[in-house]
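Dear colleagues,

As part of the handover before I leave the project, I'm documenting each prediction I ran so the next person doesn't have to rerun anything. This entry is a single chain, and its sequence is reproduced below.
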Amino acid sequence: DEILYQNDYRLTFSEANNRGFRSASKDTEYFLLLNDDTIIGKDCIQHMIDAANQTKNEAIINAFSNCDKGWLHNNRIVVDGLELIPNMTYEQVQSKLEKIRNTEIQVNDQLFLHKFTETYPTTFCAMYCTLIPKAIFDKVGVLSEEYLNGGEDADYSYRAKRLGFSTFWTNAWCFHFGGKTRKFSEDQNFARHHEEDLHNNRMCQLKWGKSGDRKKVGIWTGPAWENWNLDSHKRSGLGGSETCAGRLAETIAELGSHVLMMGSHEPCVKQIGIGVVELMPWSNFKPEQEYFDLFIASRNLNCVDNRLRAKKIVAWIHDVFAMSGKQISNYHLEKFDNFICLSSWHRNFFIQYHEVPEKYQNKVVIIPNGVNVELFK
């Protein structure tokens, strides 16, 4: 059934598509993100579905397009003597529309290949004509709404790849005028448009580095009696667990990672060595829009639920017991890779107090606290 959603204000690309994701039927098998300034070739969508099936629904699929020329490929695309490039106008292609729809195009002086299930790896899928199998969406989650009409597609592709999926082109054909919405935005408010572009580029590089391979670590400390940051222990004193979490974040960042700390913080980004620490108010955390190579839950296990996407999840107990009640649920016993205690006594107490079943006791490991001797001078 067709459902039309209207909104009183202009949604970002992520917000609009997330609304579609969340309203989908339980029987949905694929999501197709398709811009309204596209002309899709004959049987394009079916060919994309066939390619997805060929990859066992473990790849995000993009149609081959003129719009990617110059940044994701350098192929020369011609229809009836007219070269198709990004940012074309309707008047330029008006007389060629039927041939574009019927895929009567040449690529590098050869007729467009009709082996439509062939796939070609790509750095990421620019989401103007993109097929996402529901099985991938269920693992990766929704688009990040931190981006403002740019960068969210690369972010999503990088998250998918970290979770073991791929991004491919297939020979299905899509003509994309390209940049029309962004050009409209620029014409409306030139300064805002370029501020958004700068924000998106900074955000993507902050999270993923220049090549998309930056490691991502999350540290959840949750609510505290007062706001704190990485320098609080130097100025006014701070609890031991917060001090330790802050130093851990800085040490990981020095190795080149992006560390996202979710606690009683004001939003802040701090460059440390070749990495960064980003502070976020714990109440702003949207786990379904993030990915972590490592997620560290400080004391509280309840911050880990089905929305969290992480390759490895550990609970850093560091107080006598976990802060989620005496009985640890089977869900959390399965979900966490390790429960970190500070000593042999602490490990034994944790197992006994929480009545950890024997089959999970090998997950309870010991990592002693460190000491920063500089604080005692």
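The mean pLDDT is 90. Residues 10 and 225 are 38 Å apart (CA to CA).

All the best with the project,
I.
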